[in-house]
Amino acid sequence: MDGENDHINKEKVVVKVGSSTLSFPNGRINLQRIEQLAEVLSRIQHSGVQLILVSSGAMAVGGGLLGMKKKPETLAGKQALAAVGQAELMKIYQRFFEPYHQTLAQVLLTKDGLQEEIKRTNARNTLQRLFEMGIIPVINENDTVSTFGIRFGNNDVLAAYVAELAEADLVIILSDINGLYTADPRQDPEARLIETVTALSPEILQSAQGSGNSFGTGGMSVKLDAARICMDAGIEMIITNGKDPGIIPEILEGKTVGTRFVRQKKME
Ligand code: GLU
Predict the structure, then answer these.
(1) Which domain holds residue 254?
(2) How many structural domains is the chain composed of?
């Protein structure tokens, strides 16, 4: 272990999983991966780290449940699909966390709601109480009242806002790509993984343009929006490949993976 992340405090950690991590490219849900996630996250939570899971996948699971071959065209159709899928998604999570005696809570939020003081306080109090009870909140956008997530795949940004609200130390974004590259690695053999980002310079923003992931609704530029929120809030963020959830405990033990966005000094 190279210990590069050793100095990052990791008492409260947000893990964000996208639809591309939870499902196969054909849209079917990857139950084995969810099982691995449940095992790993339960173990981490039991070791005393406070976890928040921000999970997309409502539409993907809804599509599978209703036997749909492709997403509905209309926004309302997508919202209805997410409403069906969210209940099923929680059922799947509960089934896989149950053997580890890990209780979950469903928390549906909207980014604009998190800007309002009263709603922020309510959400913060709920999360705090859940932490005290040893329960992992599973957060998704409330797609019935907000369509940002469905349209822009903005759960990365939601994860950043949640981390800020909960005063988390670290956000781990599990993606279908290893991190931020200098160019799209699927098209450019010269593309290099950027290991550390200390400032969102024009070059870094430019790299994200061509290196969006293909399966999730979000791309790399949305991830950089999330990185900006985290860095400004004094929170570290790491983007890494979610194909092996075993990477999460390794990160917490100090291993350097993917792209790390270094927090700016917290202003007290
Ligand atoms: N909230 C939507 C879902 O769970 C998608 C959000 C996203 O892809 O980031 O399906």
Answers:
(1) 12-261
(2) 1
The CATH number that applies at residue 73 is 3.40.1160.10
- The answer to the question of residue 22 being in a domain is yes
Question: What's this model's pTM, rounded to 2 decimal places?
Answer: 0.92
Ligand 1 mutation pick, 15, 21, 55, 217, max ligand atoms within 8 A of CB: 217
Mean pLDDT per 10-residue segment, the chain (268 residues): 60 94 87 97 97 95 89 93 96 98 97 91 97 97 89 86 96 93 84 93 80 50 93 96 95 93 75
Contact partners, residue 259, CB within 8 Å, separation at least 6: 179, 180, 193, 194, 195, 196, 197, 238, 239, 240
Nearest ligand 1 atom, CA 140: 1
Taking the CA atoms of the chain, what radius of gyration do you get in angstroms?
17
Give domain status of residue 5, yes or no. no
Residue 227 lies in a domain: yes
